[in-house]
Predict the 3D structure of the following.
Amino acid sequence: MKLMEGWFSPSITLLTSLEVLDLGGLAGLSGRIPTSIGRLKNLRKLYLYGNKLRGSVPESIGKLLKLEELHMHENRLSGFLPPNLGCLKNLNALLLHSNRFTGSIPASFSNLTNLMHLDLHDNSLTGHIPQNIGDLQLLKELDLSDNLLNGEIPASVNNLTSISVMYLDANHLEGEIPFPSNYGQMPLLGFLRLQNNQLGGKIPPNLGYLVSLQRVSLENNRLEGAIPSSLGNLEALTELYLSGNKLSGVIPKSFGQLSHLILLTLSHNSIQGPLPNEMSALQNLQTLDLSFNSLNSIPRWVAELPSLSRIYFAGCGIKGQIPDMLKSTPSPIQELDLSANDLTGGIPAWMGSLTQLYSLNLSRNHLSSSIPASVADFQELGVLDLHSNNITGSMEHVFKIGTSFPGGSLTYIDLSDNSFTSGIQQISVGTLERVVYLNLSHNLQEGKLPTSMEKLKALQSLDLSYNKFGFGLVEALANLSHLETLKLQRNQFTGRIPAEFLNLKNLKDLDLSDNLLVGEIPAGKPLSDFPQSCFTGNTGLCGKPLSPCKS
């Protein structure tokens, strides 16, 4: 990064012979674009990106008729986009993204017929996409994402014969997807993002004509009906995102032809099983997310896909025990989500053999019995979520996971809403220096909290509520300097609140209610900032924010 600082001086516009002005990447450059910028009539390239420029774009910029490239992205520019930018007929690149522009995209932009790259993403632009945007015949890359655009996608986009990248995601666009209307249109389109809009209707079968497509995201819209089998013609496709719609019916058999597919997400739809056997041909598939559909089972071929390492079948109505076909897969499983199903029985001992597992979510099932000792064999597990089951016994084996990793491998542990009776005392056995989130609430744990909890140096959220912990609050908790959430309510803690708790400067959420605490609440922030409800139900407590202590 260049470290020149200062203001953008208007005197630079006296250099009327300038053809290239490059002040890009000067993070210390602030001020406004001079209104006299229009004097630089010989300017071909203007680079003002990555600065701290603010204010509006001067109207006079429309006089720079020789301008070929205008890069003003990553500033703090605001106001409307001047319509006379549409006079810059020689422009081939217009990059205004990552600013604070408001108002609509000027219709005059459709006059920029030499434009190859238009990027307005990450602003606050409103209104419709210009109806004649299809006049930009040379346009290769169009990015209007992360704005507030509404209305329908204009049908004229079918005329963008050179387009290879089109990102219209994260707006308020509605109506149906209007392209392609015929075979041969948009022949070079490789990357299409329409996610996070309000697009409706069916996925157009004609989408199967766009044979150059490599990545497509239509997720989080209002698309409905069956998935067209014509999508199986997209032989170059590597990533397909269709989650968060209202799609129904079965996955087409033609999906088995998508031989380059690496990722398929279809979660949160109304897709029915069974999955087509033809999908067993997807030799390159690495990520498969079919969560929250009505599949009822996982076909055996899923465990035989040679590249599959991330498997998500949450909320699919799967019954019975955890399928043992997952015991040995051609590619080691890295992420497994079987949460929110109807799984019964215990966590099988063979799970410990999944030594490359990074994330395991078995929450919201009916799993019972205790955690097998073999889970200590997980060498790389970062995320463990077992909440809302009927698991009993000790949680000690969890604290032995990933001990070969410097600082331990775990970052997120949720064992809440089970029937664990012991194990927290063994927290000192493990290496848990990287744990950020630890939730052991709603269990049957009792006894004293171990002082070794101070080893959880990275901890930001600790929830031990609704257990039977007793004795005094350990001062060691005050050494968890990153702690933002501390929930200890509904236990049997006794004695005073340690004065050291005033050291928890990052604490935003505290609940010590319904214990047996006594004495004066230590005076000062952050404890004094919390409402009374965080301390109520401790009959012996007094002091701010509760009633004053009696002298």
Q: What stands out?
A: The mean pLDDT is 95. The two ends are 62 Å apart (CA to CA). Residues 376 and 401 are 4 Å apart (CA to CA).
